[in-house]
Amino acid sequence: MQWLDGKFWAMCRGMTVSAAVTVTGGGGTAVAHASDHLDTPTVITNPRADIGDLFAWMSQDGRQLNLAMTIVGHSFSPEVDYIFHVDSGSRFGATTATTLITCHFAAANAVTCGAGNSDIARGDASKPDGLQGKRRRMRVFAGMRDDPFFNNVRGTRAAYEVAARELQHGAKMDEAGCLAFDAKTAQEIFHQWRHTEGGPATDLLSGWTPASLIVTVDLEVVAKGGKALAVWAATVAPEGQLDRAGRPLTGNALLGTIAARNISDQLKEQYNAATPSTASQFIPEIEKALGLYDSFDGQCGNQLLADAKAPPANKYRTLAALLADDRLWVNGESAVCTQLFAVELANLAGHDELRNDCGGRAPTYSAVNTYRSLLVSGVSVGVDDGLVRDDHEQSATQFPFLAPPGPVSSER
User: At what angle do helices 283-293 and 367-377 cross, to 10 degrees?
Assistant: First the structure.
């Protein structure tokens, strides 16, 4: 790695999901990377406040919203509130009401979760059946589960090394920030991305089991403004908000990707302290990263929502604004949930076939591959890291949804 151009290595560090956590699986201890883990100095020193992943999707009967938040630390802190924000409105992009689902742990197996003023659950939520609210409008589980996030980190890094090499050899960047890679380079990038050290892709997160907070809540409780739902999660301590998360990778992969570490850390600290309503300040920084992602298939301008008619400086503005907002959009009118970005694609990119999809992020989605594909080539498939599912059997229908710790699935 030492030969990498310093500027481009900073980019690679962010785009390969940057920060690391130590996990123990069947193969022993390894450094693993996940979608929002250990992204700032604050959460590195307080992993029980560090949100790893957020999931939000509709129940099979369309009556409940399902929510899950994984925490890097293997337990919950009595000094931290764990909060699901559910914004609601009558249409995509315009929310008018908010319901907070706030959970606090007085002790390891003593949780109190309130869903606005509609219901409260108090007690031990560690059993698989969870803890039911007093008014039977919500159910809560809190305990160790398998994280559905999967990622071929080594293959991804190898792919970015190819890009770094071409940059060193003179690849040019256009005015919008997209690098001019030829077809051979793009092919090599994709080949490396889909393999691990030349062999089949392997998941560096295999066997990782974080503390997981899982809630299913009646739709009527959270859809005060309408059934267009926008979900984000936060951890809050007496000193303020410590972390926030929406879509996978946004905070980690798109902030400070071409900056020195101290600048990158500062940006991410500011981002984690912000809210969707105050996050527009990060749009210019995200635009820079989007130009880099648009490079990897050798075709500049085919990224999702890239505007060929806009001035180069604004080419990626629409997508950058959407990502800075960083909420998981869920169509509460639908019980059919198939992929990340379904709601956004239906409303912003003319994908009418997805208008009846709930979108959000279910534990069964290949969410990161969808994210990569849209950022690289503007379609929801085609750019992947050789992995299409987790090594445990996750569920979108059976509470508590995330798989229990244990042996990996025999099928991949």
Answer: 80
**Quick count: other Cβ atoms within 10 Å of Cβ 222?**
31
Residue 313: domain span: 6-17+152-206+258-377
For 67, the token pair is: 């929510």
Shared-domain flag, residues 118 and 264? no
DSSP string, 286-324: HHHHHHHHTTTTS-TT-STT--TTS-GGGTTHHHHHHHH
- β-pair partners for 213: 69, 142
Residue 305: both structure tokens together: 């929502």
Percent of the chain with pLDDT over 70: 88
Residue 270 CB contacts under 8 Å (≥ 6 apart), including other chains: 281, 282
Cα dihedral 214→217→222→227 (10° resolution) = 100
Taking only the tens place, the pLDDT of each residue in 114-156 is 999 999 999 999 999 999 999 999 999 999 999 999 989 899 8
Alpha helices in 200-279 (DSSP H): 219-222, 250-253, 261-273
Cα angle 284, 287, 291; round to 5 = 150
Count of Cβ atoms closer than 10 Å to residue 94 Cβ: 12
Kindly state whether residues 108 and 186 are assigned to the same domain: no
